[in-house]
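Human: I'm a chemist; would you kindly supply sequence and C-alpha coordinates for a protein?

Assistant:
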Amino acid sequence: MHEALPQHEETDGNGEGPSRRSVLWTAGAAGAGLGLTGLGTGRAAAAGPGTAGDAAAAGAAAPERKGKTMIGVPFEPRSTVRVGIIGLGNRGGSMIDLFLAMPQVRVVALCDPVKEKTAKAAAKVTKAGQPAPAVYTNGDHDFENLCKRTDIDFVYAATPWDWHYEMAKTAMLNGKHVGTECPLALRLEQLWELVDLSERTRRHCLQLENCCYGRNEMRVLRMAHAGLFGELLHGAGAYIHDLRGLMFDPAYYEGPWRRLWHTRLRGDLYPNHGFGPVANYMDVNRGDRVVRISSFGTPALGLAAYRAQHMPAGDPSWKESYIESDRTISLVQTAKGRVIRLEHDVSTPHPYSRINSLGGTKGLFEDYPERIYLEPDQNNDEWGDFGKYAEWDHWLWKEHANPPGGHGGMDYMLVFRLTQCLRLGLVPDFDVYDAATWSAPVPLSDRSIKAKGAPQEIPDFTRGMWRKARPGVDSEKPEG
Protein backbone atom coordinates (compact mmCIF):
# COMPACT_ATOMS: atom_id res chain seq x y z
CA MET A 1 0.00 0.00 0.00
CA HIS A 2 2.76 2.44 0.90
CA GLU A 3 5.32 3.58 -1.60
CA ALA A 4 8.10 6.11 -1.85
CA LEU A 5 6.03 9.22 -2.16
CA PRO A 6 6.76 11.61 -5.01
CA GLN A 7 5.20 14.48 -3.08
CA HIS A 8 6.35 15.26 0.44
CA GLU A 9 3.73 15.37 3.18
CA GLU A 10 3.85 19.04 4.00
CA THR A 11 5.99 20.92 1.52
CA ASP A 12 5.37 24.40 0.25
CA GLY A 13 7.55 24.92 -2.81
CA ASN A 14 5.94 26.53 -5.78
CA GLY A 15 8.29 26.28 -8.73
CA GLU A 16 9.24 29.95 -8.49
CA GLY A 17 12.82 29.38 -7.30
CA PRO A 18 14.47 31.03 -4.28
CA SER A 19 13.05 34.47 -4.82
CA ARG A 20 10.05 35.93 -3.04
CA ARG A 21 9.64 33.72 -0.04
CA SER A 22 13.36 33.49 0.49
CA VAL A 23 12.65 36.70 2.38
CA LEU A 24 9.03 35.95 3.26
CA TRP A 25 7.72 32.65 4.64
CA THR A 26 10.93 30.80 3.91
CA ALA A 27 13.45 32.97 5.70
CA GLY A 28 11.04 34.72 8.05
CA ALA A 29 12.41 33.03 11.14
CA ALA A 30 12.70 36.24 13.11
CA GLY A 31 9.04 36.97 12.45
CA ALA A 32 8.17 33.49 13.69
CA GLY A 33 9.87 34.11 17.00
CA LEU A 34 12.82 31.77 16.40
CA GLY A 35 15.57 34.32 16.72
CA LEU A 36 17.45 32.95 13.70
CA THR A 37 19.35 35.13 11.28
CA GLY A 38 21.85 34.68 8.50
CA LEU A 39 19.56 32.55 6.35
CA GLY A 40 21.05 33.99 3.20
CA THR A 41 24.24 32.06 3.93
CA GLY A 42 22.51 28.99 5.27
CA ARG A 43 24.22 29.34 8.65
CA ALA A 44 22.36 29.65 11.93
CA ALA A 45 23.52 32.80 13.66
CA ALA A 46 21.56 32.00 16.82
CA ALA A 47 20.69 28.86 18.67
CA GLY A 48 17.03 28.46 17.79
CA PRO A 49 15.29 25.36 19.22
CA GLY A 50 17.13 23.64 22.00
CA THR A 51 18.29 26.80 23.76
CA ALA A 52 18.22 27.63 27.46
CA GLY A 53 14.59 28.70 27.23
CA ASP A 54 13.62 25.27 25.97
CA ALA A 55 15.69 23.63 28.70
CA ALA A 56 13.80 25.56 31.35
CA ALA A 57 10.48 24.72 29.71
CA ALA A 58 11.35 21.02 29.69
CA GLY A 59 12.61 20.74 33.23
CA ALA A 60 10.20 23.05 35.05
CA ALA A 61 6.80 22.07 36.36
CA ALA A 62 3.89 22.69 34.03
CA PRO A 63 2.91 26.36 34.03
CA GLU A 64 -0.32 27.25 35.76
CA ARG A 65 -3.36 26.67 33.58
CA LYS A 66 -4.86 29.93 32.33
CA GLY A 67 -8.13 28.41 31.12
CA LYS A 68 -10.08 25.18 31.21
CA THR A 69 -8.85 22.04 29.50
CA MET A 70 -9.71 21.44 25.86
CA ILE A 71 -9.91 17.68 26.41
CA GLY A 72 -13.33 16.44 25.35
CA VAL A 73 -14.45 19.83 24.04
CA PRO A 74 -16.56 19.51 20.87
CA PHE A 75 -16.65 21.86 17.94
CA GLU A 76 -19.76 23.98 17.59
CA PRO A 77 -22.11 22.31 15.07
CA ARG A 78 -22.68 24.21 11.86
CA SER A 79 -24.49 23.59 8.60
CA THR A 80 -21.55 24.74 6.49
CA VAL A 81 -17.85 24.63 7.37
CA ARG A 82 -16.07 27.77 6.15
CA VAL A 83 -12.34 27.33 5.62
CA GLY A 84 -9.44 29.72 5.08
CA ILE A 85 -6.19 28.30 3.69
CA ILE A 86 -2.75 29.81 4.27
CA GLY A 87 0.00 28.48 2.01
CA LEU A 88 -0.76 27.18 -1.48
CA GLY A 89 2.43 25.43 -2.52
CA ASN A 90 2.92 21.69 -2.95
CA ARG A 91 0.88 20.78 0.11
CA GLY A 92 -1.76 23.47 0.34
CA GLY A 93 -2.19 23.53 -3.41
CA SER A 94 -3.18 19.86 -3.39
CA MET A 95 -5.13 19.74 -0.14
CA ILE A 96 -7.50 22.44 -1.38
CA ASP A 97 -8.88 19.85 -3.82
CA LEU A 98 -9.96 17.65 -0.91
CA PHE A 99 -11.59 20.51 1.01
CA LEU A 100 -13.53 21.37 -2.15
CA ALA A 101 -14.65 17.74 -2.49
CA MET A 102 -16.22 17.64 0.96
CA PRO A 103 -19.96 18.07 1.50
CA GLN A 104 -21.07 21.32 3.09
CA VAL A 105 -17.58 22.82 3.06
CA ARG A 106 -16.76 26.22 1.53
CA VAL A 107 -13.31 27.61 0.91
CA VAL A 108 -13.86 31.31 1.52
CA ALA A 109 -10.34 32.78 1.70
CA LEU A 110 -6.84 32.01 0.43
CA CYS A 111 -3.44 33.44 1.32
CA ASP A 112 0.02 33.15 -0.20
CA PRO A 113 2.60 35.83 -1.03
CA VAL A 114 3.00 34.34 -4.51
CA LYS A 115 0.06 35.74 -6.46
CA GLU A 116 0.24 33.14 -9.21
CA LYS A 117 -0.30 30.33 -6.73
CA THR A 118 -3.21 32.11 -5.08
CA ALA A 119 -4.84 32.75 -8.45
CA LYS A 120 -4.45 29.10 -9.42
CA ALA A 121 -6.07 27.96 -6.18
CA ALA A 122 -8.88 30.52 -6.49
CA ALA A 123 -9.66 29.16 -9.94
CA LYS A 124 -10.12 25.71 -8.40
CA VAL A 125 -12.67 27.15 -5.98
CA THR A 126 -14.82 28.72 -8.68
CA LYS A 127 -14.47 25.65 -10.91
CA ALA A 128 -15.93 23.62 -8.04
CA GLY A 129 -19.01 25.83 -8.18
CA GLN A 130 -18.26 27.92 -5.10
CA PRO A 131 -18.17 31.73 -4.92
CA ALA A 132 -14.82 33.32 -5.67
CA PRO A 133 -12.72 33.33 -2.48
CA ALA A 134 -11.12 36.38 -0.94
CA VAL A 135 -7.38 36.40 -1.63
CA TYR A 136 -4.52 37.71 0.49
CA THR A 137 -1.19 38.16 -1.31
CA ASN A 138 0.19 41.36 0.20
CA GLY A 139 3.40 40.07 1.78
CA ASP A 140 4.31 37.57 4.43
CA HIS A 141 1.94 38.86 7.14
CA ASP A 142 -1.24 39.18 5.09
CA PHE A 143 -2.45 35.96 6.74
CA GLU A 144 -3.25 38.16 9.72
CA ASN A 145 -5.98 39.85 7.67
CA LEU A 146 -7.36 36.48 6.59
CA CYS A 147 -7.62 35.48 10.24
CA LYS A 148 -9.54 38.65 11.09
CA ARG A 149 -12.41 37.72 8.79
CA THR A 150 -15.74 36.94 10.47
CA ASP A 151 -16.82 34.32 7.93
CA ILE A 152 -14.17 31.66 8.66
CA ASP A 153 -14.62 28.71 11.03
CA PHE A 154 -11.32 26.90 10.48
CA VAL A 155 -7.89 28.09 9.34
CA TYR A 156 -5.56 25.59 7.69
CA ALA A 157 -1.83 26.47 7.54
CA ALA A 158 0.37 24.61 5.04
CA THR A 159 3.51 26.74 5.15
CA PRO A 160 7.17 26.22 6.05
CA TRP A 161 7.69 25.11 9.63
CA ASP A 162 8.93 28.49 10.88
CA TRP A 163 5.47 29.98 10.53
CA HIS A 164 3.13 27.38 12.04
CA TYR A 165 3.38 28.79 15.56
CA GLU A 166 2.64 32.37 14.56
CA MET A 167 -0.20 31.43 12.25
CA ALA A 168 -1.85 29.13 14.81
CA LYS A 169 -1.53 31.85 17.45
CA THR A 170 -3.01 34.50 15.17
CA ALA A 171 -5.92 32.30 14.16
CA MET A 172 -6.91 31.50 17.76
CA LEU A 173 -6.59 35.12 18.89
CA ASN A 174 -9.07 35.94 16.15
CA GLY A 175 -11.55 33.31 17.30
CA LYS A 176 -10.75 30.61 14.73
CA HIS A 177 -10.11 26.91 15.14
CA VAL A 178 -6.83 26.10 13.44
CA GLY A 179 -4.87 23.18 12.06
CA THR A 180 -1.28 23.18 10.84
CA GLU A 181 0.98 20.81 9.00
CA CYS A 182 3.73 19.32 11.14
CA PRO A 183 5.42 20.25 13.35
CA LEU A 184 3.08 22.53 15.29
CA ALA A 185 5.97 24.62 16.61
CA LEU A 186 9.72 24.32 17.05
CA ARG A 187 10.34 25.40 20.66
CA LEU A 188 8.87 24.16 23.91
CA GLU A 189 7.83 27.60 25.09
CA GLN A 190 5.93 28.03 21.81
CA LEU A 191 4.17 24.70 22.33
CA TRP A 192 3.17 25.69 25.85
CA GLU A 193 1.93 29.06 24.60
CA LEU A 194 -0.30 27.38 22.01
CA VAL A 195 -1.65 24.98 24.64
CA ASP A 196 -2.45 27.89 26.95
CA LEU A 197 -3.95 29.94 24.14
CA SER A 198 -6.18 27.07 23.01
CA GLU A 199 -7.48 26.72 26.57
CA ARG A 200 -7.97 30.44 27.02
CA THR A 201 -9.66 31.14 23.68
CA ARG A 202 -11.64 27.85 23.63
CA ARG A 203 -10.42 27.28 20.07
CA HIS A 204 -8.99 23.97 18.96
CA CYS A 205 -5.38 23.97 17.74
CA LEU A 206 -4.61 20.79 15.82
CA GLN A 207 -1.61 19.32 14.11
CA LEU A 208 -3.21 17.66 11.10
CA GLU A 209 -1.27 14.40 11.11
CA ASN A 210 -2.40 12.55 7.99
CA CYS A 211 -0.42 9.40 8.83
CA CYS A 212 -2.78 8.75 11.74
CA TYR A 213 -5.42 8.08 9.08
CA GLY A 214 -3.46 5.57 6.99
CA ARG A 215 -5.29 2.29 6.44
CA ASN A 216 -2.60 0.18 8.09
CA GLU A 217 -2.25 2.58 10.98
CA MET A 218 -5.99 2.61 11.67
CA ARG A 219 -6.27 -1.17 11.41
CA VAL A 220 -3.39 -1.70 13.84
CA LEU A 221 -4.94 0.88 16.16
CA ARG A 222 -8.24 -0.99 16.34
CA MET A 223 -6.48 -4.33 16.77
CA ALA A 224 -4.37 -2.94 19.60
CA HIS A 225 -7.42 -1.56 21.37
CA ALA A 226 -9.18 -4.91 20.97
CA GLY A 227 -6.29 -6.62 22.76
CA LEU A 228 -4.96 -8.64 19.83
CA PHE A 229 -1.38 -7.61 20.62
CA GLY A 230 -1.81 -8.33 24.34
CA GLU A 231 -0.19 -5.88 26.69
CA LEU A 232 1.68 -3.32 24.60
CA LEU A 233 5.43 -3.14 25.10
CA HIS A 234 7.13 -1.23 22.30
CA GLY A 235 6.57 0.55 19.01
CA ALA A 236 8.50 2.44 16.36
CA GLY A 237 7.82 5.18 13.87
CA ALA A 238 9.97 7.16 11.48
CA TYR A 239 10.31 9.52 8.60
CA ILE A 240 12.82 7.89 6.29
CA HIS A 241 12.55 9.55 2.89
CA ASP A 242 15.34 10.37 0.46
CA LEU A 243 14.76 14.09 -0.14
CA ARG A 244 18.23 15.00 -1.39
CA GLY A 245 17.15 15.75 -4.94
CA LEU A 246 14.15 17.79 -3.82
CA MET A 247 16.10 19.73 -1.20
CA PHE A 248 18.59 20.85 -3.85
CA ASP A 249 15.85 21.61 -6.39
CA PRO A 250 15.24 25.40 -6.36
CA ALA A 251 11.80 24.84 -7.89
CA TYR A 252 10.59 22.58 -5.07
CA TYR A 253 11.56 23.84 -1.59
CA GLU A 254 11.44 27.55 -2.15
CA GLY A 255 14.18 29.42 -0.42
CA PRO A 256 15.35 26.56 -0.06
CA TRP A 257 13.73 26.51 3.36
CA ARG A 258 13.88 22.82 4.16
CA ARG A 259 17.56 22.32 3.35
CA LEU A 260 18.46 25.29 5.52
CA TRP A 261 17.09 23.52 8.57
CA HIS A 262 19.96 21.07 8.16
CA THR A 263 22.30 23.97 8.99
CA ARG A 264 20.53 24.71 12.30
CA LEU A 265 19.61 21.57 14.24
CA ARG A 266 21.09 18.12 14.81
CA GLY A 267 17.92 16.50 16.12
CA ASP A 268 14.82 14.89 14.64
CA LEU A 269 13.40 17.63 12.45
CA TYR A 270 10.21 15.77 11.55
CA PRO A 271 9.04 13.27 14.19
CA ASN A 272 5.29 13.62 13.83
CA HIS A 273 4.54 11.15 11.02
CA GLY A 274 6.08 8.28 12.96
CA PHE A 275 5.26 9.45 16.47
CA GLY A 276 1.56 10.21 16.01
CA PRO A 277 0.36 6.72 15.00
CA VAL A 278 2.42 4.92 17.67
CA ALA A 279 1.24 7.38 20.32
CA ASN A 280 -2.31 6.51 19.28
CA TYR A 281 -1.65 2.78 19.61
CA MET A 282 -0.41 3.32 23.16
CA ASP A 283 -3.13 5.81 24.16
CA VAL A 284 -0.57 8.52 24.89
CA ASN A 285 -2.40 11.38 26.65
CA ARG A 286 -5.33 8.94 27.10
CA GLY A 287 -4.09 6.61 29.84
CA ASP A 288 -0.33 6.79 29.32
CA ARG A 289 2.10 9.59 28.60
CA VAL A 290 5.61 10.01 27.24
CA VAL A 291 8.04 11.11 29.95
CA ARG A 292 11.57 11.28 28.50
CA ILE A 293 13.55 11.07 25.27
CA SER A 294 17.15 10.08 24.56
CA SER A 295 18.49 10.80 21.09
CA PHE A 296 21.61 9.99 19.13
CA GLY A 297 22.73 11.21 15.73
CA THR A 298 25.18 10.13 13.06
CA PRO A 299 27.64 12.48 11.40
CA ALA A 300 26.17 14.92 8.88
CA LEU A 301 27.69 13.76 5.59
CA GLY A 302 24.85 13.01 3.17
CA LEU A 303 23.92 16.48 1.93
CA ALA A 304 27.52 17.58 1.48
CA ALA A 305 28.26 14.41 -0.50
CA TYR A 306 25.21 14.96 -2.71
CA ARG A 307 26.18 18.59 -3.26
CA ALA A 308 29.70 17.62 -4.29
CA GLN A 309 28.32 15.20 -6.87
CA HIS A 310 25.45 17.23 -8.28
CA MET A 311 25.77 20.97 -7.65
CA PRO A 312 27.95 23.24 -9.82
CA ALA A 313 30.60 25.51 -8.41
CA GLY A 314 29.11 28.83 -7.41
CA ASP A 315 25.74 27.37 -6.41
CA PRO A 316 24.45 29.12 -3.25
CA SER A 317 24.41 25.77 -1.43
CA TRP A 318 28.21 25.80 -1.27
CA LYS A 319 27.98 28.51 1.38
CA GLU A 320 26.07 26.15 3.70
CA SER A 321 27.51 24.02 6.50
CA TYR A 322 25.32 21.04 7.40
CA ILE A 323 25.08 19.92 11.01
CA GLU A 324 21.83 17.88 10.97
CA SER A 325 22.58 14.20 11.64
CA ASP A 326 21.96 12.08 8.58
CA ARG A 327 20.06 9.68 10.79
CA THR A 328 18.70 10.44 14.24
CA ILE A 329 17.51 7.64 16.48
CA SER A 330 15.51 8.47 19.59
CA LEU A 331 14.16 6.28 22.36
CA VAL A 332 11.07 7.59 24.13
CA GLN A 333 9.79 6.02 27.35
CA THR A 334 6.25 6.23 28.63
CA ALA A 335 4.90 6.40 32.17
CA LYS A 336 3.91 2.72 31.87
CA GLY A 337 7.45 1.78 30.90
CA ARG A 338 6.80 1.22 27.20
CA VAL A 339 9.45 2.21 24.68
CA ILE A 340 8.96 4.05 21.37
CA ARG A 341 11.77 4.30 18.81
CA LEU A 342 11.77 7.29 16.46
CA GLU A 343 14.03 7.70 13.43
CA HIS A 344 14.62 10.49 10.92
CA ASP A 345 16.67 10.36 7.73
CA VAL A 346 16.10 12.44 4.61
CA SER A 347 19.69 12.87 3.43
CA THR A 348 20.93 9.37 2.50
CA PRO A 349 19.80 6.89 -0.19
CA HIS A 350 17.09 4.48 0.89
CA PRO A 351 13.49 3.47 0.08
CA TYR A 352 10.66 5.31 1.78
CA SER A 353 9.63 4.02 5.22
CA ARG A 354 7.80 5.13 8.33
CA ILE A 355 8.70 1.80 10.05
CA ASN A 356 5.31 1.76 11.83
CA SER A 357 5.67 -1.19 14.18
CA LEU A 358 3.93 -2.30 17.36
CA GLY A 359 4.82 -5.14 19.70
CA GLY A 360 3.09 -6.68 22.67
CA THR A 361 2.89 -9.85 24.73
CA LYS A 362 0.93 -11.63 21.97
CA GLY A 363 2.95 -10.61 18.94
CA LEU A 364 4.18 -7.95 16.55
CA PHE A 365 3.24 -5.89 13.49
CA GLU A 366 5.83 -4.33 11.20
CA ASP A 367 5.26 -2.19 8.12
CA TYR A 368 7.35 -1.53 4.99
CA PRO A 369 6.56 -4.24 3.97
CA GLU A 370 3.49 -4.97 6.07
CA ARG A 371 3.69 -8.23 8.04
CA ILE A 372 2.34 -9.61 11.26
CA TYR A 373 3.03 -12.32 13.81
CA LEU A 374 0.30 -12.85 16.40
CA GLU A 375 -0.37 -15.82 18.62
CA PRO A 376 -2.31 -18.05 18.27
CA ASP A 377 -2.71 -17.28 14.54
CA GLN A 378 1.04 -17.67 13.90
CA ASN A 379 3.20 -20.11 15.81
CA ASN A 380 5.83 -21.32 13.31
CA ASP A 381 8.31 -18.43 13.35
CA GLU A 382 7.00 -17.19 9.97
CA TRP A 383 5.31 -13.89 9.27
CA GLY A 384 1.56 -13.93 8.66
CA ASP A 385 -0.56 -12.13 6.06
CA PHE A 386 -1.73 -8.77 7.38
CA GLY A 387 -4.41 -8.71 4.68
CA LYS A 388 -6.29 -11.41 6.56
CA TYR A 389 -7.05 -8.89 9.29
CA ALA A 390 -9.06 -6.56 7.05
CA GLU A 391 -12.10 -7.09 9.24
CA TRP A 392 -10.38 -4.76 11.72
CA ASP A 393 -10.37 -1.84 9.30
CA HIS A 394 -11.64 1.40 10.78
CA TRP A 395 -15.15 2.43 9.73
CA LEU A 396 -13.66 5.28 7.70
CA TRP A 397 -11.86 2.79 5.48
CA LYS A 398 -14.88 0.54 5.23
CA GLU A 399 -17.02 3.49 4.19
CA HIS A 400 -14.44 4.96 1.78
CA ALA A 401 -12.63 1.92 0.37
CA ASN A 402 -10.98 3.78 -2.53
CA PRO A 403 -10.53 7.38 -1.44
CA PRO A 404 -9.22 10.03 -3.81
CA GLY A 405 -6.24 12.25 -3.14
CA GLY A 406 -2.62 11.65 -2.28
CA HIS A 407 -0.64 9.47 0.09
CA GLY A 408 -2.72 6.33 -0.32
CA GLY A 409 -5.97 8.02 0.71
CA MET A 410 -4.91 9.18 4.15
CA ASP A 411 -5.18 12.85 3.14
CA TYR A 412 -8.81 12.33 2.15
CA MET A 413 -9.59 10.53 5.42
CA LEU A 414 -8.04 13.36 7.41
CA VAL A 415 -10.02 16.09 5.67
CA PHE A 416 -13.24 14.08 5.65
CA ARG A 417 -13.05 13.34 9.36
CA LEU A 418 -11.95 16.87 10.30
CA THR A 419 -14.77 18.55 8.41
CA GLN A 420 -17.26 15.95 9.65
CA CYS A 421 -16.33 16.78 13.26
CA LEU A 422 -16.61 20.50 12.52
CA ARG A 423 -19.98 20.12 10.82
CA LEU A 424 -21.60 17.75 13.35
CA GLY A 425 -20.15 19.40 16.44
CA LEU A 426 -18.00 16.44 17.52
CA VAL A 427 -14.88 16.28 19.66
CA PRO A 428 -11.86 16.20 17.30
CA ASP A 429 -9.92 12.95 17.10
CA PHE A 430 -6.80 14.66 18.48
CA ASP A 431 -6.19 17.98 20.18
CA VAL A 432 -3.62 20.59 21.11
CA TYR A 433 -2.06 18.30 23.73
CA ASP A 434 -1.37 15.68 21.07
CA ALA A 435 0.00 18.32 18.72
CA ALA A 436 2.40 19.61 21.37
CA THR A 437 3.48 16.11 22.41
CA TRP A 438 4.16 14.95 18.84
CA SER A 439 6.21 18.10 18.12
CA ALA A 440 8.24 18.15 21.36
CA PRO A 441 10.92 15.76 20.03
CA VAL A 442 12.14 18.46 17.60
CA PRO A 443 13.86 20.63 20.24
CA LEU A 444 14.34 17.84 22.79
CA SER A 445 16.14 15.46 20.42
CA ASP A 446 18.48 18.31 19.46
CA ARG A 447 19.24 18.95 23.11
CA SER A 448 19.75 15.25 23.84
CA ILE A 449 22.17 14.76 20.95
CA LYS A 450 24.20 17.78 22.06
CA ALA A 451 24.22 16.28 25.58
CA LYS A 452 25.60 12.95 24.27
CA GLY A 453 22.26 11.20 24.51
CA ALA A 454 21.32 12.37 28.00
CA PRO A 455 17.57 11.92 28.61
CA GLN A 456 15.40 15.02 28.27
CA GLU A 457 12.14 15.37 30.14
CA ILE A 458 9.06 15.61 27.93
CA PRO A 459 6.51 18.03 29.40
CA ASP A 460 3.06 16.83 30.40
CA PHE A 461 1.04 19.21 28.28
CA THR A 462 -2.21 17.77 29.69
CA ARG A 463 -1.22 18.84 33.22
CA GLY A 464 -2.05 15.45 34.73
CA MET A 465 -5.18 14.69 32.73
CA TRP A 466 -3.40 12.00 30.68
CA ARG A 467 -4.37 9.42 33.30
CA LYS A 468 -7.99 9.38 32.19
CA ALA A 469 -8.90 7.14 29.27
CA ARG A 470 -10.79 8.89 26.47
CA PRO A 471 -11.57 8.43 22.78
CA GLY A 472 -9.17 9.35 20.00
CA VAL A 473 -8.68 8.39 16.37
CA ASP A 474 -10.29 5.01 17.07
CA SER A 475 -13.67 6.67 16.83
CA GLU A 476 -17.25 5.46 16.52
CA LYS A 477 -19.11 6.25 13.33
CA PRO A 478 -21.41 9.21 14.03
CA GLU A 479 -24.97 9.64 12.88
CA GLY A 480 -25.54 12.23 10.17
Notes: DSSP finds 15 helices and 14 strands in the chain. The first helix runs from residue 52 to 59. Residues 1-48 have pLDDT under 50 and may be disordered.
